[in-house]
Amino acid sequence: MPGLRSGMKRLAWVGLTTAAVVSALLVTAESASPAGATNSKLLRANEHATLTYGATAPLVTFDPAASSAGAEEAQYLGLVYDTLVKFNAKAQPEPDLATSWKFQSDTEVTFTLRTGVTYQDGSVFDATTAMESLDRSIAAAGPRSSSLGPIARVEALDPTTLRILLKAPDPDLLFTLASAPCDMLSPEAFSRPNLNLDPDGTGAYFYDAAQSTPGDHYTFVANPRWWDKSVIRPHTIVFKVITDPTARLDAVQTGQVDLTLINAANASQAKADGLRITAAPVAWTGLLILDRTGKIVPAFASLKVREAIAMAIDRPAIVRAALYGYGSVSDQPILKGIQGYDPAIANRYTYDLKKARQLIAESGYKNISFTAPIDASTDHTGAEILKAELGAIGINMTIQLLPTNSLGPAGRTTQYPVITFGFPNYDPYGRYLAQLAPTAGFNPFHDDDPTLDSLAAQYAAAEFTKPKLANKLAAEMSAEEVDQGYIIVAAQADDIVASNPKVTGIGIVYGAPNFADIHFS
I want to staple 285 with a disulfide (CB 3.0 to 4.6 A). Which of 119, 173, 322, 493 is the partner? Predict the structure, then answer.
């Protein structure tokens, strides 16, 4: 179920490239429901049940083309929309609205589509409506439109056959097709004046506007016409917006919500109170340098300064004091065991204030200062530690708190020289497209590294036909990003969900619970 059945399809950025990602991204608190989802006890427990989720942010839009596909936002959209492809617990593509597909070449793929599927307005899903939905997202130039850039043309060959032609090989095509911008939106809804709050998909749930108050809570009711009858699901899901982490903890402790994301600082208390804790290492945390050529902070153009920042970070202290043990020491953006991890740079930057100060002196820059934006709803301990550590080498980092849901958009502007929230710790090619390519959304200054561009291009060409070479190139991409100080990693951080013990099937993907198999036991 999109958003419920297959959280792997709801990744916040681009996609995955190896099955090893599962151990890092998808952790299930208990086994999912029995095969076929026919257990009568579970059906009775869920057919009239309401599951309430303490959401960290309000909905921005139900319009797939306008969606930033952030983790929380993708969960909202995933309840009302389906996509062509989804991914299972082994990070392998599986049918969703497409029952099968075939790569005719590395730039052409055809999809056979599911029949008997209707949009929530009653119109029929077919290849023509799928083509029109994809064409709309491609033309919209939305926040995630760059992921659709490799698509040259979409064609409806007949009612059940869709063809996608690519400009060049794209290793992330299937993952892109499983992302929010590729949610299948009914063409009947294209002209709706308030599509932001009036979705029309083929998904498992209807959005119940009458029972919702945007900004406060959003109610979703099971779609009785949904095509997959095998899935056990609560009749109603409510997203209750609680931006303050302390308030979210209180809400799950008192039964106001059934599950929510919590900060690491609260995990021990939540566990002691009898709540179920589910955690998974899904992101690296640290600094992504946006201003790599020093347009607003001239010192950032110096590799010595960027290296000094990396050497000033006491990573074990970050894990202990900021993550409360829910994380691990790292100085590269890829989790160990996943494609792109490079053991040769595992200890690239050791904590060395003397060396860091020496590098600053050698750079010739003095009185270095910059502003780092922080999500106001998150624990600021790590940022405060980093501020103190950089202060010890003469760099003044000013922390600026931003409202929930505004940090990502801020990182796509030229207002800030860095962005500070955690990023997914997988998929080196997807990271390049999202953060480091000249046209990447999180490269607002359009800085370029020809070496990295070349490695990415070689990786894209090798992924389909030369997996060993692709693995080597992925590691080289990580090494270039770390060696150049574009990505300064402090740690690999866990996302943590606290839940009512009666809620089962909980998993975690980057930045949000995975609603793949969540139901009441």
Answer: 493
Does 22 or 6 have the greater pLDDT score?
A: 6
Give yes or no for residue 445 having a pLDDT over 90.
yes
**Side chain identity at residue 373, one-letter code:** P
Alpha carbon distance 202, 199 (integer Å)? 10
Tell me the torsion sign for CA atoms 161, 166, 169, 174: negative
DSSP 488-504: EEEEEEEEEEEE-TTEE
Q: Which residue has the higher pLDDT, 338 or 40?
A: 338
Contact in structure between 5 and 228 (CB atoms under 8 Å): yes
Confidence at residue 352, expressed as pLDDT on a 0 to 100 scale:
97
Question: Mean pLDDT across the chain, nearest whole number?
Answer: 87
Displacement of CA 344 from its chain's centroid (Å):
27
- The pTM of the full predicted model, rounded to 2 decimals, is 0.79
Angle in degrees, CA 344, 437, 57, rounded to 5: 95
Q: Please, which pLDDT band fits residue 510 given cuts at 50, 70 and 90? A: low
Using the predicted structure, report yes or no on whether residue 17 has a pLDDT greater than 90: no
CA distance 8 to 38: 23
CA distance 101 to 82: 16
> What DSSP assignment string belongs to 374-403?
EETTS--HHHHHHHHHHHTTTEEEEEEEE-
Q: What is the pLDDT of residues 83-126, one digit of tens each?
A: 999 876 555 688 999 999 999 988 999 999 999 999 999 999 99
What average pLDDT score do residues 157-183 get?
93
Report the Cα 3 to chain-centroid distance in Å. 13
Concatenate the DSSP letters of all residues of 97-160 into one string: SEEEEEEEETTEEEEEEPSS-B-TTSPBP-HHHHHHHHHHHHHHT-TTGGGGTTEEEEEEEETT
Q: Which two tokens stand for residue 45?
A: 């427990």
The answer, yes or no, to whether residue 2 has pLDDT greater than 60, is no
Nearest to 149 by CA among 410, 486, 460, 450: 460
H-run or E-run covering 409: helix 407-410
Are 447 and 438 in contact, with CB atoms under 8 Å apart? yes
Q: Which residues contact 228 (CB under 8 A, 6 or more apart)?
A: 1, 5, 204
Measured CA distances, 382 to 6, 70, 270, 369 (Å): 32, 22, 21, 18
Higher pLDDT, 456 or 514: 456
Report the C-alpha gap between 469 and 44 in whole angstroms. Answer: 51
DSSP secondary structure string for all residues of 248-311 = HHHHHHTTS-SEEEE-GGGHHHHHHTT-EEEEEEEEEEEEEES-TT-SSSGGGG-HHHHHHHHH
